[in-house]
Write a structure and sequence with these properties.
Strand 17 and strand 18 form a beta hairpin. Among the domains are: about 100 residues, Beta-Lactamase; about 160 residues, Histidine kinase-like ATPase, C-terminal domain (Heat Shock Protein 90), CATH 3.30.565. The strands form six sheets. The protein has a six-stranded parallel sheet, sandwiched between helices. The two termini are about 75 Å apart. It is of the alpha/beta class. It is built from 21 helices and 25 strands. The radius of gyration is 45 Å and the shape is elongated. This is histidine kinase. It catalyses: ATP + protein L-histidine = ADP + protein N-phospho-L-histidine. It is an enzyme of class 2 (transferase). One of its GO terms (molecular function) is phosphorelay sensor kinase activity.
Length: about 750
């Protein structure tokens, strides 16, 4: 349970000072279980303080006297006999006595075995510490157990309290402490009823605690033994009695904070250990113990458990000034204020952008539908020509157009006139498109082609005609030539291409917009360096005798900064550039590296890390570099989103490449929680998303790109609990392997 003045730790040095790196021997005597929370805190901090502060090796020997349970003359006599035999040939540098009853045993042993060795003790209260009989080379500190101030703090927090119950054990050591604690609480008698529940059998204590009224509080000390003689270690007794009542518990022992007490003016046993460690280092450094005054330990603090305050509905504005509140659970807004505000702004912007895109798409769809209707209503022109290119027959539409004056080479060309002759005249006049029509028709008439199609633009006019020629299987040869006015269609296709290009550009800009802040920061750094170097060069050049070397160095820095900025812009341009898909040799390692560099700053802003594990000598793949980078960007961006809910330090994304049975693999693994999903294939369904924003099309599009490249994309559970997205593409054999 809450361990009390059972704790003291000390280190000493013999009268002559040890060298800074000399080995030091420390012998520690303690009364109670060294594994109890308070004792463990003190000894742990003491060891660490001395280990860090002393340059040489330090050896600790710890002895457990168990005086709280066994305090008879016979036991004390046997202890002394045992330690005289054990340490007859051992000479420590410092002896530590944990508690004053331990100090008495230590001083008796020192007279016989360790004359002149300094002793450092820890006392459970001030009066006992100051009453220690004068002895050479002895110093120590006492623990200030502020029972009255703790009770007053409790009454401040719970002003309706009418009863204060004191609970503590019945061991000889606790019986000796009881009267002092009761005396400290005496001034409260005129404000509340004081109920003494010390030294009771545990069963009786359980009954009394269960009967406490709602306006009662409990002050809990140590509990090594109950009134029936049953013994307890650590927090055993506290955990049991705490379960018997719903009343708030207060204590002066720091080990109870977080275990069920509301708080109080606690003794922080870790600070006790550090205080003792500092005194030990002074003794090891040769300072006389007699010259160090006995004083209070620097270990008290007003501390409270936020969870217990909430349980008993105690508002924090009632806490005493300077009080510390531990175990406070931060609200979502406290944790993610900036992220939530940023997400709200991002959602608003994305909603606006998506609405605009939907409206634009509908408008373009209507335009496309109108273009299709125009194309469907157009009438074609058909003519039959012989093997020399002379027209023998035409349809009515051709005839009407010929009489009205058809645009281009066929103006006023009717049946019986040369089709090829009209286009030859146009070609001779400089009509560049006429030659392609001549080549098509002559190839079909000569038998080189069965059929063919070309699109012909009338020279000097914004009119297009689709010319189709099909060879006739007649004995005399010939062909059917059809003209379709596709001007409307060509215009619609041009508009559609422009619309698709604009929409694609907007989509890429939207994707890059999520990285805008990190990219701006990445560009700003080299540009700032360029500006600084340029200003320096300007100053140097204005001198009467410029230092060419310094100017050259400044120019080199300008060039280096410009190149760094150019690299960032180049990576952006690669992803944002327009154009049709190309098939070329692509390096998957380079694509992963480029995208990782592009999102690097965004990962830093998210508190995430991106680790690259790229296989050397990775075969190339054939495909469109921009599309492959788009897949990598989608996978890495999704991985960064997946780890955003993890604690800092656990937000990891691993990007690796590898050979896989003649194929090349790109794997993006995250440490998020997506691996808990039953069906990972849902990630690739259109419009499926686990985020509050986005359309859920990124992975669906990425899988389509993978399929278009002859590969596949899927997700699997990662060993760390997250998701590993795996892209496999056919690899190209190296020249020497072909």
């Amino acid at each position: 349970m809450l361990l009390i003045a059972t704790f003291a730790i000390a280190f000493g040095a013999p009268a002559p000072a040890l060298a800074d790196n000399a080995p030091a021997q420390v012998l520690v005597f303690q009364s109670d279980d060294p594994t109890a929370p308070a004792m463990s805190s003190i000894t742990g901090e003491l060891r660490e303080s001395v280990r860090v502060g002393w340059s040489g090796p330090v050896t600790f020997k710890l002895e457990f006297l168990d005086l709280s349970w066994f305090d008879t003359p016979d036991y004390a006599r046997e202890l002394r006999r045992f330690y005289r035999a054990k340490y007859s040939s051992y000479h420590p540098g410092v002896i530590v006595a944990l508690r004053l009853d331990v100090l008495r045993v230590v001083l008796d042993l020192r007279r016989e075995l360790w004359s002149g060795v300094p002793v450092l003790f820890l006392s459970e209260d001030r009066s006992a510490a100051l009453a220690v009989p004068a002895a050479p080379d002895v110093t120590g500190i006492w623990l200030d157990y502020a029972w009255l101030r703790t009770a007053e703090s409790a009454l401040r927090l719970l002003p309706d309290t009418r009863e204060v119950a004191l609970v503590m054990g019945a061991s000889p050591w606790e019986r000796a402490r009881h009267d002092g604690i009761a005396r400290d609480l005496g001034p409260l008698a005129d404000r509340v009823a004081l109920l003494d529940l010390a030294r009771l059998p545990l069963a009786e204590l359980d009954r009394r605690l269960a009967a406490l009224p709602e306006n009662a509080i409990v002050l809990f000390d140590t509990f090594y033994m109950d009134g029936a003689g049953d013994r307890f270690v650590g927090l055993q007794a506290f955990e049991r009695v705490r379960a018997q009542t719903q009343r708030p518990f207060f204590s002066v022992h720091g080990v109870g904070l977080g275990k069920g007490i509301v708080g109080g003016e606690i003794v922080d046993y870790r600070r006790v250990g550090r205080d003792l460690g500092g005194l030990t280092l002074r003794l090891l450094g040769g300072e006389s113990a007699t010259s160090i005054p006995i004083r209070a330990a620097d270990a008290n603090a007003l501390a409270f458990d936020a969870r217990e305050l909430a349980l008993f509905r105690i508002p924090e504005d009632r806490l005493p000034p300077g009080a510390e509140v531990h175990f406070r659970v931060p609200s979502f807004w406290d944790l993610y204020r900036r992220w939530a505000a940023g997400a709200a702004i991002a959602v608003t912007l994305q909603t606006t952008l998506i609405a605009g895109l939907v409206i634009e798409r509908r408008r373009r769809g209507r335009a496309q539908a109108m273009s299709d209707a125009v194309l469907a209503s157009m009438v074609g022109f058909v003519a039959v020509v012989d093997k020399t290119g002379v027209m023998h027959r035409t349809n009515r539409a051709w005839a009407r157009a010929s009489r009205a004056g058809a645009p281009g080479p066929l103006d006023r060309v009717a049946e019986g006139e040369s089709y090829l002759g009209a286009f030859r005249r146009a070609a001779a006049a400089g009509d560049a498109g006429a030659g392609r029509v001549i080549e098509l028709v002559e190839g079909v008439l000569a038998g080189r082609d069965v059929e063919g199609t070309v699109e012909y633009r009338h020279d000097g006019a914004e009119r297009w005609t689709e010319v189709r020629a099909r060879r006739l299987s007649w004995k005399d040869g010939g062909a059917v030539v059809s003209h379709f006015d596709v001007t409307g269609r060509k215009r619609a296709e041009s508009q559609a291409r422009e619309s698709l290009s604009a929409l694609s550009h907007l989509n890429r800009v939207a994707a890059m917009g999520e990285l805008a802040s990190s990219i701006a920061h990445e560009i700003n750094q080299p540009l700032s360096a360029v500006l600084t170097s340029a200003q320096a060069a300007e100053i140097l050049l204005r001198r009467a005798a410029p230092d060419v070397a310094q100017v050259s160095a400044a120019v080199e820095e300008i060039v280096a900064g410009a190149r760094r900025a150019g690299q960032v812009i180049r990576r952006m341009r690669v992803l944002l550039k327009k154009g049709e898909a190309q098939r070329e040799r692509c390096d998957l390692n380079e694509a992963a590296r480029e995208v990782a560099q592009l999102v690097g700053n965004d990962a830093l802003l998210r508190g995430a890390t991106i680790a690259l594990e790229l296989a050397p000598d990775l075969p190339a793949v054939r495909g469109d570099a921009v599309q492959l980078q788009q897949v990598a960007l989608n996978l890495i961006s999704n991985a960064l989103d997946a780890v955003s809910g993890r604690p800092y330090g656990d937000r990891r994304v691993i990007v690796r490449t590898a050979r896989a049975d003649g194929r090349v693999a790109l794997v993006v693994e995250d440490s998020g929680e997506g691996g808990a999903m039953d069906d990972l294939e849902r990630f690739f369904e259109p419009f499926f998303t686990t985020k509050s924003e986005g359309l859920g099309l990124g992975l669906c599009i990425s899988r389509s790109i993978a399929a278009a490249h002859g590969g596949r994309l899927w997700a699997e559970r990662a060993p760390a609990g997250g998701v590993a997205a795996r892209l496999e593409l056919p690899g190209e054999a190296a020249p020497e392997e072909r």
